[in-house]
User: Fold Aldehyde oxidase/xanthine dehydrogenase a/b hammerhead domain-containing protein from Acidianus manzaensis.
Amino acid sequence: MFYSYVDDVKGDYESVAFIRSSKSYAKFTLSGNAFTWEDLKDYKIPKVFEPEGKLKDIEIPLLAKGVALYVGQPLGMVIGKDPYEAEDKKEEIEVEYEEINQPLYPPDNVILSFSKGNYELGENELNLKLKFNRQSPAPLEGRAIAVRHEDGKLLIRISNQAPTVVRKIVSKMLSLDEDKIEITVPRVGGGFGAKQDIVMEELAVIALSFYTGKNLKWIETKSEHIMTSQGRGQSHEIKVYFNNNGKITGIIDNLDYDMGAFPLPWSGISPLYVTLMSMKSVYNISIRNNVRVIGTNNPPQGAFRGFGRPEAFFIIERIMDEVSRKLNINPIELREINLNKDLEIGNVTQVLNKMKNKYKEYKEKYGKGIGVSLYVHYASPTSKVLIGEEKSFVGGYECVSIRLKTDGKVEVKTTVVDMGQGISKVLKKIVSETLNYDKVNVIIGSQDVNGYGSWASRSTITAGNAALLAAKDLKEKIDKLGGIERVLDKLNNSPWDIDDKEFYSIKCYEPQDMVGAISGQISVVNFDGLRIKALENYTIVDVGIAGDEEEVKGQIIGGIVQSLGGLLYEDVNSPFDYLLPTAVEAPKVSVELLNTPSETPGGYRGIGENSISGAYASIANAISDFFPVYEIRVKYNA
Assistant:
């Protein structure tokens, strides 16, 4: 139950367990021998982002400060010689509650409100209420952290997507120089966005280790993760204006964003802005967004694969489908009518033609239960957006170093991490093919180069292109001296005054603008009056030049199955019985890739979050052939 990779870390560690709130909003007192916020009050969690506009500057607490703000919030901590003793000690702590019945943030819990965009009236009007409830990323391997003191350094082993960002946050929290902090990240057993942020529990373990001088570790349980690591959480009241020819003239979207009790250090409320940016998708439509960010007695809303895109595509694609039904226009033709033809996102015409053929095939085969989504997946935000607009200390670039060593190996270093997307394999392939040399070793999660890790479908776009540029530069140096074999011979057997440092290159890369990929999905489901069964899914994506086509297809298939779980099975209100889809529930998936190069050195496009972002919408539209879907998770037979 408690096993994780941190159990393989050599050395003696004591284990931490958290006393968690069983109330959603209450004053509390702890009785017993536990560490509380009072012990750690000198350590403040910094924010990666700067509060935008009139967003209230809300403190992010390591542990609850006398008031529990949500079920599962850590109130205190205990230390045991192993996880089992820590759990026993936790049971010895008594908690008394006095429930609170008033707004979390008076007078009305609205943390931020603003409006943007315009709209035009049309011949017809449609009103919709669409809701995307909270869900948990639920990776196979939950969070785990081991903190050790050695040779004047703080050694942190953590399952995280962005180790360099972790080091910056920890440095600021502890007022400790970054060179005194060493972060090690193994192959991450699934991230799905949850491990982009370093969360309060992980930071509390680090702070407690620093405070006590003890070597500590913590391994998150499945129920802890589902209870406290959540994304999504948006409600939309929508008015749609459209003409009889199928042209949607305007949309008014009244959006409530469930922030939770406070923002996370890095995510903040960024998923909201990604939703707003993504809602127009591939369409030429005027949208007016009236936005409220609501503080709630839920866990902080964090990153979850898609990061605001699934919510946006669910909204716009359900609108497309509802208008299609009202006017009795073929759903793909309706999308074509509203298409923005000026986007540089790949071969839109080919995607549409192939979708029309597949839609016709499914209609003839099944007749009913067929849903469509058409969308553009933008990846790899730039420093202009992150630093310039969001006031973040995280940039959009990634640096990769490549060195030919005297042992004959080519060493590649990058801050991006492997979390199931196979980036090590992709980088090795890029460097090997460029150098025409297969002795390549990729070191992920490195702190020896600048960069910001794996998130926002950015790894291949940034690190892949940087690796390509560095490999080309290194090849040029080597070719001038007659090739790798001759260089290695000279390095090892010659009186030349050179060493492997001479055969080194480092390049950094970020795109000028986010890189888009035109994408489409068609899903087929059956509903027998009792249960929904996913039958087939066809996904077509213009991936540009694929780093590895099999890895790309695996990412696409995995995202489709993951969205199916979010639509039909997963319920954060039941953390001890959180149902995840298996191969039994998965549909038959066929993936088609197009290869229109992007305007990056390698021609790559982002993939990691692509399919999950569009699959919620296509499956929801397929179900709506039987009954209309206005809410995720889908509720039926209720």
Observations:
- The chain has a mean pLDDT of 94.
- The domain at 329-380+513-638 is CATH 3.30.365.10 (Aldehyde Oxidoreductase; domain 4).
